[in-house]
Fold lysoplasmalogenase.
Amino acid sequence: MVLCCLTNRVTRLILKQRMDSLRPFLFFSCIFFLNKFAISLNYLQFYSPTFLILKCVPILSLAAFVRGKFGSFARIRQDKHGYRIFIGLCLSMFADAALVYQDNLPIFLIGIGLFFAAHMAYVFAFGWKDFKPKLMILCAVAAIVTHQSVAHNMKNDLPEVLKTSGIFYTLAIFSMIWRALARLDFGQMERNNWRDVSAGIGSILFVISDIILCVNKFVTSIHAAGYIVMTTYYAAQLGIALSVPEQPVKLKP
């Protein structure tokens, strides 16, 4: 019931946005999934420039959406939250490009590093105003349980560098959840800023996407994992992008 309420609120938030600004994201997301479906039918090649571009363009569209809220780069640089979300989206876009070639270990590690940097950008964007140590402990425990559960079942022939990087990456994504959820008042949900709710939902979806990707690649095959990963990923980035409030236009005197 609570999840349905939150989803309805975030849906209203999306509808309040300038839909002209979100249409490129929605359009290119649909084009990407059509392209992915065509690849699954062997009509198109997976490792193609077209696939790489179509995978990255939806996030580029969200970065443009966030930048458009401020009107100029000069104004967005003055807003810590908006600027860091913008940087996180740009880093995510380059990480998306790297993960297209995830069978190449060096390129895959570059993609993981870029996503790690994107998560840290989101962590600092969400800020440290409400520390909430109990929530921090809960997220830390969840991070440990998640990492140990996946690491225990990972394939034995994986390079040690992947196992080590997984520790830091897990800490980063659960730190993002901690800082996003710390902005919420769980005692009185109706009093929350629904942009903060959007950020919280986005951060949770991001972690779900990453966990499914990791399990599918390193533990066991999951049916339709590619579609699940990218759907939750795009929804996560949309939720985070929507956390940036609309900025009032300053008219010249």
In short: The chain has a mean pLDDT of 87. The first helix runs from residue 2 to 16. Residues 140 and 212 are 19 Å apart (CA to CA). The radius of gyration is 18 Å.
